[in-house]
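Morning!

This is the sequence you dropped in the shared folder:
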Amino acid sequence: MAFKKKLSTMLALAAMACLSACAVDLGEFEKGDGYKSLYDSLGDVDALYDGGKETYDVEESLFNAKTVQEFKWEKEEYEVKQHQYLYIIIPFEKELRLENIALYAYTPVRVVLHLSVFFFEDSAEAPQKIKYLSSPDTKPIYDDDGNVIGEEPIEYDDPPVEEAILTGDVDLAREEWTSFVMVNFKQPGYSDGYLHTVTDGLLYIRAENNSGFHRDDMTPITYSFVNLIMRSVA
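The structure's back. C-alpha cells below.
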C-alpha cells in the first residue's frame, strides 16, 4: 500500500502547546452545556492494536478539565494505556459539522507518526479484516487431500490511503505530549473542508506505522493519546 504525504492537510497545532481550560474553543458545543454537549455527541472510543483493543469513555479518559490542565486522569483506570495503536475509532451519535479535530499524543521515543483518516457512515462500511503488524501476507492452498500445494495472498479490507479524507505526518517528541490538529477534510460530496458527521458514523484515525502493510518501510510506534477536542460550527 503506497503512502502519499499531504503535509498541507494536517498541521502541527503549536498554538495549543499551552493548552488551558479557557483556551479550548469548542465552537457550537459551547452554546449548550460546554463539555457535556461534546460528550453527548460521541460514543466510547475504541483503540485497536495488534492483539487487542482498549475502549475509552470520552469524559473519563479523553477530554475533561484534569486532562486539559494537567495531562493526567482522575483515576488510574481512566488512563489511556500505551500500545502500538493501529486505529483510533471515534463514533458519532449526532449530525455535526466539524471545523477541526485536535489530539495530543505521547511516545517514549522521537518518531514521525504517519496518519491517514477515514470516515464511514456506518459500521458496515468500516474495515473488518484488518492487517496488523503480525498478520500474515499469505495463506496456504490445499489440494483435495489436504496437502499444501502453494500460497495465495490474503485480502485485507483496510481502506487504501487514496480513500482517506486526510493524511499527514506528525513529528512526535520524546517523552512529551505533542499536539496536532486535523483540518481541511477532503470528504466526498463536500467541498467546504469540514467533516460532516452522521448518527452512527465512524471516524477511523490510522497510524500507518503500525499497519502490516508498512512493516518493512515504517518504524512501529508505541503511544498514548488524550485531549480529543473538536470545534463544531453551525
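Headline: The longest strand covers residues 97-106.

More detail when I'm at my desk.
O.
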